[in-house]
Amino acid sequence: MNSDTPLSPRPLHHLPDGGRSVLTSRQLREHGVTAAEAAERCRPGGPWQRILPGVHLLHPGPATGEERLHAALLYTASRERPGHPEGAVPAPGTGGGPYGEAMITGLAALALHRFSAVPSLRALDRVDVLVPRARRLRGAGYVRFVRAAALPRPREITGLPTAPAARALADAVAQLSDASAVRRLLIEAVRQGHCEASSVVRELSRARLLSRAHVVDAVDALLAEGRAMAEALLYDMVRGYSLPEPLWNVELRLPGGPLLAGVDAYWPLQAVALEIDARTPRQGGGHDPLGRFTPAGEHMERLGITVVRVTPRKLRESLEAQAAVVRTALIASVDREPAPYVVIRPR
């Protein structure tokens, strides 16, 4: 028996919705198409084409952007396990579904996340695929592999496993030397709510990209953008939820003494200070709404000043809840000992 002939072929026209437009060599054999027949149909001028080794596009003309990504994942899955024959695709449940553990990352993933600052999927010269570091894989055609010791949990976008926005952004930045392009991507990530500035900085640090001058400059712009957006939300919170008007952006000092802290808002009658924490999360203290885990916060608490810390994400996702935290701190001030006098100056 010819090894290319399946025991129970399933004709292509029996595929749902007219059939997939991208199939591997093995999938074609499962549908009764021998290797010789596939090669014949992929001749110049034929109805099919070989888009990647062992992967076929079942129509003439250019592939769509999503077809290119689908082909890249099928090519990866057919080779990421030693001993699998060309065109073999893991069965569902044996390591991440039909694509194994692979996922789209880099600029292609950002396009799937609907970043406007990246080319269309069809226009991309390369498609980056994130795979485990231990896999021995060689890129082919437009496919480039990005390896990682630990893979993030992918998001499924249009049926394709896709790296989270912050991780895809770091993988894209690693390939970019254009400072303005890097800056546009980082700013869009925060401005359009794709991810938090802190998560972007964390991924860039993990990828060891913060030693590059043009990336550092873009991060400075990113953090400034994130802070400006958070400040605008803070103004909306105070006025939209009828909180007393605070003193905005002030420094607190002891009389004749050193600087206590610079805060984003301060209610002097209640001795309540609010800080926007837009830094990269640190170990410990990340879930406490009060600022007692920093030296300045601890010092102010000992003096009787209540410190409320909010993150840009909390302001964006739960503005009403953050307003309730501030209102509770203001109400609770009547039960505390009066705070010592502090000098208040514009920051």
UniProtKB/TrEMBL annotation:
It comes from the Bacteria. Residues 1-20 are annotated as: Disordered. This is DUF559 domain-containing protein. It comes from Streptomyces bingchenggensis (strain BCW-1).
